[in-house]
From TrEMBL:
Protein name, entry field: Polysaccharide biosynthesis/export family protein
Domain SLBB residue range list: 130-210
Record carries keyword Transmembrane: yes
Places the protein is found: Cell outer membrane
Membrane topology of this protein: Multi-pass membrane protein
Keyword Hydrolase: no
The family this protein is said to belong to: Belongs to the BexD/CtrA/VexA family.
Keywords: Cell outer membrane, Ion transport, Lipoprotein, Membrane, Palmitate, Polysaccharide transport, Porin, Signal, Sugar transport, Transmembrane, Transmembrane beta strand, Transport
Length: 242
C-alpha cells in the first residue's frame, strides 16, 4: 500500500510542476509610469462608451436624463453610443466629436452650444459603462461599475468579497490600455510597509488579475485521492507514509 501511495505522490508532484498558471507569465510584465499616482487624472471618453446627457427642464434635448423620470432608464437604450469615429449624435446640436474629451470639457461644450436656445442651460453628462474588471483568485470575480475616476485596488477587491485562499498576493497584475498601448504592472501586496505604492488607484477600464499560488493545482489533485479529507490533511497523511 505504501508503494502505491508513494507512486501516486510522485506522479502528482511532477505533473503539478508542469501545470502552468496562466495568470502568471514571466517576461511579459513591465512596470511603467502609467500607474504612478496622478492627482490631475480625468477619464477621457472612448469609442463604444455609452453617454447620457441631461438638460434640466428640457426632455427633448436630453438622452437618459437624470433629471426626469420618463427618460432615465439605461435598460431601454437611453444613451448615446460613441461610434468608431469617436462621435455621437446630440439632439439639435447634431454630430459631435467626443472621444478624447473629459466629462467637464464635454459639459462646457454643450453649455456653449445650448445657449443658442437656452438662457442658462444646466447640463450633466455621464459615462454609463465606466468599470473595472477583477479576475482570478477573488471570491466573486466580476466586472464592477464605478462612478469615480479614482478607486483604490483594495477598495475594488473588497467589492468582490476579498481574496480567495489560494490568491498569490505577491504577483497581482494590473492591465491598463490607453489607446493602442497596453501596460502591465506587478504588485506585491505582502509588503505592508509599501502600501502606498501597492494600493494603487485604478482607472476605469483597468483589469485586475489575481493569480493562484503554485500549489493550488497540486492540492486539488491530492484531494481527489482521498475525497473525504481536506487537501492539507491528505498531503499530511501521504508524508507520514514515507
Amino acid at each position: 500500500m505504501k508503494t502505491i501511495v508513494g507512486y501516486l505522490f510522485i506522479v502528482l508532484f511532477f505533473t503539478s510542476c508542469k501545470t502552468q498558471n496562466l495568470l502568471v507569465q514571466e517576461g511579459n510584465v513591465k512596470d511603467t509610469s502609467t500607474f504612478a499616482y496622478d492627482s490631475d487624472y480625468q477619464y477621457k471618453i472612448r469609442k463604444d462608451d455609452k453617454i447620457s446627457i441631461s438638460v434640466w427642464g428640457e426632455d427633448d434635448l436630453s438622452v437618459g436624463s437624470t433629471y426626469g423620470i420618463y427618460n432615465s432608464n439605461e435598460v431601454y437604450g437611453k444613451w448615446l453610443l460613441v461610434d468608431v469615429n469617436g462621435n455621437i449624435e446630440i439632439p439639435k446640436i447634431g454630430t459631435t466629436a467626443v472621444a478624447g474629451k473629459t466629462i467637464p470639457q464635454l459639459k462646457d461644450y454643450l453649455k456653449i452650444q445650448l445657449k443658442k436656445w437656452l438662457v442658462n442651460p444646466i447640463v450633466d453628462v455621464k459615462v454609463l459603462n465606466k468599470e473595472v474588471t477583477l479576475l482570478g483568485e477573488v471570491r466573486n470575480p466580476n466586472t464592477i461599475q464605478v462612478d469615480k475616476d479614482h478607486v483604490s485596488l483594495l477598495e475594488m477587491i473588497s467589492k468582490t468579497g476579498g481574496f480567495d485562499f489560494y490568491a498569490n498576493l505577491k504577483s497581482i497584475k494590473i492591465v491598463r490600455q490607453q489607446d493602442d498601448e497596453v501596460s502591465i504592472t506587478n504588485l506585491d501586496l505582502t509588503k505592508s510597509k509599501d502600501i502606498l505604492n501597492t494600493n494603487i488607484l485604478l482607472h476605469p477600464g483597468d483589469i485586475v488579475i489575481v493569480p493562484s499560488k503554485k500549489n493550488k493545482d497540486f492540492d486539488k489533485r491530492v484531494a481527489s485521492i482521498v475525497p473525504l479529507t481536506s487537501a492539507i490533511s491528505t498531503a499530511a497523511i501521504i508524508m507520514k507514509l514515507f
